[in-house]
Write a structure and sequence with these properties.
Blueprint: H1 3-20, E1 23-24, E2 31-32, H2 34-38, H3 44-62, H4 67-84, H5 89-97, H6 99-110, H7 116-121, H8 134-166
Helix pairs in contact: 1-3, 1-6, 3-4, 3-6, 3-8, 4-5, 4-6, 4-8
């Protein structure tokens, strides 16, 4: 495996760990990442985690993941983003779902050279297939649309609440 691919793989694994498993919750075996914490910020948090999660999928494609795997990865992010758009409950869902960790596991299953044991033994180079980006772009477009609609709805509710509280 080339040094460049190895660096890119380590980068997306590190991002995945930061988003899903950065720190242990004391007294439990559960880990929490930045995804549910960033997601607490209405609308903006969901966009930030979507961008970083999307980057992991696009890097996986450039590292040789198959189309089927990329669609599964994008679907994991879709589920994460849909659930994450629900205030508080979505952030609790993020703690358990761990879409980015699932996506790294999918990448390692699809491209065995990326497993830790294979990296150590430096297995053969990967043959990347041509990727049809339409389904992946469709899934990300759907996620962005849903986040945008939920953001508009949240702002509308917030405006109504302020008008109710302060008479406007």
């Amino acid at each position: 495996m080339s040094a460049t691919k190895l660096k890119r793989l380590k980068r997306i694994k590190t991002l995945s760990k930061l988003l899903d498993n950065a720190v242990s919750i004391p007294g439990t075996k559960q880990k929490i990442g930045l995804d549910p914490i960033i997601g607490l910020f209405p609308a903006v948090g969901d966009y930030i985690t979507l961008i970083v999660s999307g980057y992991i999928v696009f890097e996986a494609a450039s590292l040789g993941a198959k189309q089927e795997t990329l669609v599964k990865m994008a679907t994991n992010i879709l589920v994460d983003s849909l659930a994450g758009s629900v205030p508080i409950a979505g952030d609790l869902f993020d703690v358990a779902w761990k879409a980015n960790q699932k996506n790294i596991e999918l990448l390692e299953q699809d491209v065995p050279q990326f497993r830790e044991d294979a990296i150590a033994s430096e297995l053969t180079e990967i043959n990347a297939e041509k990727i049809d980006w339409k389904p992946i772009i469709f899934i990300f477009g759907t996620v962005i649309f849903i986040i945008a609609i939920s953001s508009i709805f949240f702002l509308w509710i917030f405006k109504l609440l302020l008008a109710f509280l302060f008479g406007g």
